[in-house]
Amino acid sequence: MPQHYNWNNGMGSTSHPTVANDSGVPSEIAPLVETASFVETAEPDESQEARKLSPTNTQLASATTDEEPKTFASYIQSTNLAPDPSSLVQEAVDAAERQSNQPAKIVLANAPTQTVSSSVIDESGDHAIYDEADLNFGISTLQNSAQLPQSVFYTDPYLLDLITQAMVGNQELRILSEEIQIACNETYARSGEYRPFVTAGVGAGVEKSGRHTRDGAVEEQLEVAPGRGFPDPLPDFLVAANVSWEMDIWKRLRNAQNAAAMRYLATQEGRNYIITRLVAEVADNYYELLALDNRMLTLEKTIEIQQRSLDISNAMKEAGRGNQLAVQRFQAEVHKNASERAVIAQEIVEAENRINFLVGRYPQHVDRTEVNFIDLNMQTLSSGVPSELLQNRADIREAERQVVAAGLDIKVARARFYPSLTLTGGLGWNAFATGYLFRTPESLIYSVAGDIVGPLINKRAIQADYRTANAVQLQSIYNYQQTVLEAHIEVVNLVSKVDNYRNSIEIKKQQLQSLEESVDSAGKLFQNARVEYVEVLLAQRELMEAKMLLIDTKQEELSAIINAYQALGGGGF
After folding, report:
1. Do 407 and 40 touch, CB atoms closer than 8 A?
2. DSSP string spanning 322-344?
3. CA–CA distance from 407 to each of 80, 94, 260, 262 (Å)?
4. Which residues pair with 234 in a beta bridge?
5. Would 233 disulfide with which of 208, 228, 458, 482, CB 3.0-4.6 Å?
6. How far is CA 469 from CA 39, 40, 77, 403, in A?
7. How many helices (H) and strands (E) does the chain have?
8. 3-state secondary structure of 168
9. What does the angle CA 4 – CA 8 – CA 11 come to, to the nearest 5 degrees?
10. What is the pTM of this model?
């Protein structure tokens, strides 16, 4: 971790930048609104609800000098990290229009394919065997581990194969792919609302007017041609096209389309975040499976040691140097550990099926490596600087786009206070007989009209929608703030956990070495009848418990590394 960054919340030592807030934003979220400077919010005035709100004026705090301690909170408060919303919107619109012209399909990640070398697979084909040099993955030269591709961060070929299968077969990713397609379709639909609507059609009908009505009396007196009256009943044939176009004067429709485009981008970022979580879950369960294998191996070795002690106890009893109590105690210990072995076997089955569920396949054996779990190493973590966390975390980018979309929704709601202008027109041919239908200009018909309509009385529904849009925007800002804070705390906790658990493992290794020596000494002394069987039992039990605890601690360390890699933003495609 760079020494010039202090990964604390910084709230106690960092002053907030000055924010001139004319839009009704609460002071406690003003620094965040400054970060997302493209957002504006206000409470509508009852008497001037159609008044255009003045944009939020912001003033960035002075840059922190290199000599001053830089904190995560001060960095966010003094830096505008929000991308240009217009470029994001245009990107989403272009992507939506491109995808709308393609058939719907499941979006699959372009996952790399890893090939397992046959030279490292044992004869059973279930395990790959590595030596210690292969397990030392080295130290990352990048300033942020999130920049490492997952094929570099995870080097186990079986694990990489499971991740690749999960990208294709996981049901949650498939559901999210369809949600992205739905958001894309919504954006494409919104893009047509501010364009002219053109309809065309044909029609035919017949009408009989009563003679004692105005229409019937008029038709009785008129003639189509000299000496020829209108047919009774009167046919009617029509071929026409109509045009309707709402002029987007206040950009209500365009802002609605841009809001849909930002939500489309948000759904993409949401899927990217789920991908990073999925990769972390697969890796976490995989290493848990390796830990269970190691626990099973440790238990079997312990049973072997206790069985030898049982045999020695029987021999000493037959020689008259022992008693039945020692034999029974050793037998009870062997049976207890044999029972524990069945429990671990069940845990292995459940761990395998958790992986199968994430991968999207039915229960089956999970191939995995055969390693010395305690000496297993992974990439050294590099957390980088706080700004990289905002750029790399997909959930933060998703929350950011939701803030932009909420700000656009306010503009849409505000535009409803203003009048709307709609142009309509039509062109066609209309006649009572098909022979006269396309005679021009006799049968030609057309119309042009314009409507200006605006709210006048009883604007409660519009005002309620406007206030709701403001409340939704504040929710999105609070959610963004919460997401950033949660990401910051998560990274700090996990990085600290990795360091502390690594130190704990080194100490436990020394404890384990002492316990192994004590078991060996107790066994020799017991053979020479210099210690009681209880000392041997206690030494063996403490050794097994220490090994199990060491395996659990190692699993927690690997889990912390995996989750820290995900928390930094790594693991996506």
Report:
1. yes
2. S-HHHHHHHHHHHHHHHHHHHHH
3. 17, 21, 12, 11
4. 207
5. 208
6. 12, 11, 25, 11
7. 14, 10
8. helix
9. 115
10. 0.70
| Among the listed residues 486, 490, 505, the one whose alpha carbon sits nearest the alpha carbon of residue 557 | 505
Q: How far apart are CA 444 and CA 442, in angstroms?
A: 6
DSSP secondary structure of 443-475: TEEEEEEEEEE---S--HHHHHHHHHHHHHHHH
Beta bridge partners of 246: 422
Structure tokens, 524: 């020799």
Return the structure tokens found at 460. Answer: 């409660």
Helix (H, G, I), strand (E, B) or coil at 391: helix
Q: Which residues pair with 169 in a beta bridge?
A: none
Spatial separation of the C-alpha atoms in residues 88 and 265, rounded to whole Å: 8
Distance CA 484, CA 479 (A): 9
For the CA atoms of 152, 157, 162, 167, what is the dihedral angle to 10 degrees?
40
Token code pair at residue 208: 């009989």
Burial of 314 (0-12, 13-18, 19+ CB in 10 A): middle
Residue type, 476: S
Tens of pLDDT along the chain (573 residues) come to 433 334 433 333 333 333 334 444 344 334 433 333 333 434 444 434 433 333 333 333 333 334 444 444 444 344 444 445 555 556 655 665 565 555 433 333 333 333 333 333 343 434 333 343 333 333 344 567 778 888 888 989 999 999 999 999 999 999 999 999 999 999 999 999 999 999 999 999 998 888 778 877 777 777 777 777 778 788 889 999 999 999 999 999 999 999 999 999 999 999 999 999 999 999 999 999 999 999 999 999 888 888 887 887 888 777 777 778 878 888 888 888 899 999 999 999 999 999 999 999 999 999 998 888 888 888 777 766 666 777 888 999 999 999 999 999 999 999 999 999 999 999 999 998 888 889 888 899 999 999 999 999 889 999 999 999 999 999 999 999 999 999 999 999 998 999 999 999 999 999 888 888 888 888 778 777 677 777 878 888 888 888 999 999 999 999 999 999 989 888 876
What is the Cα gyration radius of the chain?
A: 37
* Pairing mode of beta strands 70-71, 5-6: parallel
Burial (CB count within 10 angstroms: exposed 0-12, middle 13-18, buried 19+), residue 145: buried
Which two structure tokens, joined as six digits, stand for 52?
């255009």
**Secondary structure element (H or E) that encloses residue 545, with its range:** helix 533-567
3-state SS class at 204: strand
DSSP strand E in 13-81: where? 19-20, 57-58, 70-71
Name the nearest CA neighbour of 62 among 72, 77, 83: 77
